[in-house]
Amino acid sequence: MANEQLKTAAASAPWMADALAPGLPPQVFQHTVSQADMAISITDVHGNILYVNPAFTRVTGYTTDEAIGKNQSILSNKTMPPALYQSLWQKISQGEVWTGRLINRHKDGSQYLAELSISPIVDAHGKVLNYLGMHRDITEVHRLEYQVRNQKALIESVVDAAPVVIALLDVDDRVVLDNHEYKKLQADLGMAEPAPMLMSAIRASLELESGKGRRTSGYLFLDREVRIDRPGGNTPRWFSCSGSRVREDDSTADAFLAGRRRDYLLLVAKEITSLRAQQEKVRVAALQAVMADEDRVLALRESLAAAASPTEGPL
User: What is d(CA 184, CA 68) in angstroms, rounded to the nearest whole number?
Assistant: First the structure.
């Protein structure tokens, strides 16, 4: 049935016979189009359908008999802006290919998002003879795309709202992602990237404890307190830093078979300058109290020593 419809369409579109490569049997062309997984339709210059393949029926719900002779507009959901259709027709009528996304309608009335390509078929003089339409249902792909986009936006909002400095670093300490607090720290310190300075202080602290030298990517640390000296002799700032390893699958084409991964370090730094100042006050107060106690003990000892000494009387 599909082959008969294709032959009928070919009678209305002589270019189809000319499109066959020399030595290629017509049946090969017919089977290729009819078995293609993408919905294919051929129309005249007015958009009236001359041929649809089985995939067209699977996607739209319209059988071959129901589609042939109808206008391609049976798929329109009537919700796209009129200007879009005007632009579409203007482009294909000039012999140019149009690609884009349209909200289409199944036979049962339900909507679906179609990724569509319309190619004008022209003769040797550039006159448009027919249109070749190919489309697929990308409703689920679109849903997943927006789900990922929404999750990304949600995560970015949460990270930006966090009252701590957050930065994602690559193996060379380059910042690939940061939050609002990190940008504030950049402005406060007057430097492009505070992260390398924090990491240098953290590594120095780790080296003092381990004695193993600089560590490679993937190391972890928790609540590591580091000090940043501000320019101009201003009060130093203290941060409690934690780091955890984050791995990302390499999405490049050459990593398709290799399955490579990229390592990152998630640096979280909470400013504890005020806490350190309070701790220093407590320490100083405790030291002063100890010194005062020592002074009192010394004075008491002197008093006891004086009382125990013989008193010299008159001769």
Answer: 64
